[in-house]
Amino acid sequence: MEFTLFTTQAGLYFLVKYIHFLAGVTWIGLLYYLNFVQGPFFAETDAETKKNATQKLLPRVLWWFRWGAMFTFLSGITMIALALGPLGYPHNSQWVVVILVGAVFGTIMWANVWFVIWPNQKVVIAKAKGETTVDPAPNANRAFVASRTNVLLSIPMLFAMGAARNLPLAYSPDGLRVFLGIIALIALLIEVNALVADQNGPTIKPIKTIKGVITSGVILALLTYILMEVLLTVKAA
User: Is the pTM of this model over 0.90?
Assistant: First the structure.
């Protein structure tokens, strides 16, 4: 009796995909918890409760948060490598082109977790524990902006992941370079803003509130869909 899951390339791909889903649910679930639940609670609670939660709760949340991001990223890269390599997916197929949109947004989000949010939150936690005298306000500001940016990007990222295989496009690869170029430019502009803007600045205002970031994310997902329809269904003359 053969055990297909471990003896075929397709079985290996499924296993990696399962890990990707499991890690992704953990990561994105905690991203939404931090932004939609914990953040508003911290803003409303008393200073002592916030200090205790920052000391004892936040490190636990961020441990699962950052490792969820890491395993999602690594399994996602592995999935794409398997698809393009042993499984032989055409490089210009709809799945590959659209999944790359999710990969671009997801990679930026992963980088924000490990190189922006976590380093800055470590300073905030250290201050709450009395391990440093550094003012954590700038670090809290940068972590907030990066976290809100990740919420913004998560909505079109999830759309692209679902659309890669399930959206019925009259797909044509002729416009894929323009499409991917525009997506890359949008992602770059959003990330530059995440790295330099202040949370009270005009470019952060659309995503500062929960309602604002959800609305902005849906608009970005809609823009992504429109670009797909316009650029990925047009055949060259």
Answer: yes
